[in-house]
Design a protein that fits this description.
With 199 residues, the protein is α+β, with helices and mostly antiparallel strands. The chain has a single domain, classed as Protein Transport Mog1p, Chain A (3-Layer(aba) Sandwich). It has three helices and eleven strands. Strand 5 and strand 6 form a beta hairpin.
Length: 199
């Protein structure tokens, strides 16, 4: 009986000693959400609401804007290129430069101001000069860091047409987690710009 009591006491104290030790925590490795990217493939934009064409990804949807601050948009050629897999969209706005009051220099300055507005949170903004084989020119703003819009651009023929585009994602995920998605979509937008052509 005495041996049993001694054994019980030893087991009790061993368990008590083990339970009082601080556990050793092993840090978990940094991880990012898994993203399955679709295979790149493009189709022609042939909407009759616009007087230009370009190639856009088959895994996106064209959604015409029907509301602009509770009013009808100024032109029918306002639309979004929607990425359902990433919950992101490229907002497109079109301005006819031949209509009264539409000044190219003013529109260019507004585009610079809109890109510069993101400088509050951006690490830097890289300006890329655009000039494609179809006579389209403009500037793209590659915005690095936790800004709301990581990529913006405007395209023009300098006399009749002006198009502005801005990429947005409906997410609060950190910029470094979104970096692969932003890079993927940026490639698509650059292909769109390269194939952009006025009709």
């Amino acid at each position: 009986m005495r041996k049993l009591s001694l054994l019980f006491s030893l087991v009790f104290f061993a368990l008590l000693w083990y339970s009082c030790n601080d556990p050793v925590y092993t840090p978990k490795p940094r991880s990012y959400p898994r993203i399955d990217f679709p295979k790149k493939s493009f189709q022609s934009f042939t909407e009759d609401i616009c007087n230009f064409t370009f190639e856009y990804p088959v895994y996106t949807q064209i959604q015409q804007d029907t509301n602009f601050f509770e009013e009808i948009p100024p032109h029918a050629c306002w639309f979004d290129l929607f990425y359902p897999n990433f919950d992101g969209r490229v907002h497109f706005t079109y301005v006819n430069l031949q209509q009264a009051g539409n000044d190219l220099e003013k529109l260019r300055q507004e585009s610079f101001n809109m890109a510069d507005w993101h400088n509050k949170r951006a690490n830097f903004i890289d300006e890329l000069i655009i000039k494609n084989a179809n006579g389209v020119s403009g500037i793209a703003f590659d915005i690095d860091g936790p800004a709301a819009s990581p990529f913006q651009f405007f395209l023009t023929d300098s006399t009749q047409h002006f198009v502005r585009g801005a990429l947005y994602f409906n997410t609060h995920v950190q910029a470094d987690s979104m970096a692969p998605v932003i890079d993927f979509v940026r490639e698509d937008v650059l292909h769109l710009i390269e194939t952009f052509k006025w009709e």
